[in-house]
Amino acid sequence: MELEQAMEERTRELQNLNAKLEAEIRERSLVEQQLLQDKVYLQYLLSGHERDRQLIAYEIHDGVVQGLTAAMMHLETAPGQIDQVRIDTALRILRGSVAEARRVMKGLSPPLLEDIGVIAAIEGMLEEQMPESCEIEFEHDVQFDRLLPLLECTIYRVVQESVANIMRHSQARHAKISLQEAGERLVLSVVDDGIGFDAVGAAASGFGLKGIAERAKLFDVEAKIDSRPGAGTRVTIDFPLIRANQDFDKWASISGNLGAAKRV
């Protein structure tokens, strides 16, 4: 009898110990999973930061550097041959370059994007930059509250660069920006009725278009740029929907795909 009681008591002790061990294993597994998610998130932010530095260089090259170069060309004439027309032209270009530099610097950390999200940030940008010669419409149909910060920044930058291209090059009278949530995807498109261009040739030489393409690659997707002379331009990117503080599996999947691509 005493032996049976001792065995039963020992069995209960072992069961309790086993339950504690299982609880510790579950807790450790959750901690490891969270650490892995944090690691993936940090790696992706660092990757995005490095890519962002390159993209900012694209913007500076396209806007500021080209303007300064043009102004220098107007002023670098033989001594005594600079007329007032050349001076006025150079000053106009320099003023434009200064304005472009301020736009780039302000765009480095748009407060609306950090405070209340990408929709309000795009609306604010359009209010400030709406050109008189072109009407730009912004249409959005989304259900998300906030997106992952890197995704919000990427969408904002693509729209910003597209609007800059419309203002600088397109001669468009109308343009439309659309952001649509469709299931687990976010479809961004920017369409204008401008003069268009040779999309193949421009994609190989234009830093602005390279920047848009590189931003899309951050999420393992492609920026589709459709244009031809006289037929306007359409930029379309089909992003994965990655909500803020959620969807870590999507992050891990995208990060893994990009890592594999880099190794190849």
Automatic annotation (TrEMBL):
<keyword id="KW-0547">Nucleotide-binding</keyword>
<dbReference type="InterPro" id="IPR003594">
    <property type="entry name" value="HATPase_dom"/>
</dbReference>
<dbReference type="InterPro" id="IPR011712">
    <property type="entry name" value="Sig_transdc_His_kin_sub3_dim/P"/>
</dbReference>
<keyword id="KW-0067">ATP-binding</keyword>
<dbReference type="GO" id="GO:0005524">
    <property type="term" value="F:ATP binding"/>
</dbReference>
<keyword id="KW-0902">Two-component regulatory system</keyword>
<dbReference type="GO" id="GO:0016020">
    <property type="term" value="C:membrane"/>
</dbReference>
<dbReference type="InterPro" id="IPR050482">
    <property type="entry name" value="Sensor_HK_TwoCompSys"/>
</dbReference>
<dbReference type="Pfam" id="PF02518">
    <property type="entry name" value="HATPase_c"/>
</dbReference>
<keyword id="KW-0808">Transferase</keyword>
<keyword id="KW-0175">Coiled coil</keyword>
<feature type="domain" description="Histidine kinase/HSP90-like ATPase">
    <location>
        <begin position="150"/>
        <end position="243"/>
    </location>
</feature>
<dbReference type="InterPro" id="IPR036890">
    <property type="entry name" value="HATPase_C_sf"/>
</dbReference>
<dbReference type="GO" id="GO:0046983">
    <property type="term" value="F:protein dimerization activity"/>
</dbReference>
<keyword id="KW-0418">Kinase</keyword>
<feature type="coiled-coil region">
    <location>
        <begin position="4"/>
        <end position="34"/>
    </location>
</feature>
<dbReference type="Pfam" id="PF07730">
    <property type="entry name" value="HisKA_3"/>
</dbReference>
<protein>
    <recommendedName>
        <fullName>histidine kinase</fullName>
        <ecNumber>2.7.13.3</ecNumber>
    </recommendedName>
</protein>
<keyword id="KW-0597">Phosphoprotein</keyword>
<dbReference type="GO" id="GO:0000155">
    <property type="term" value="F:phosphorelay sensor kinase activity"/>
</dbReference>
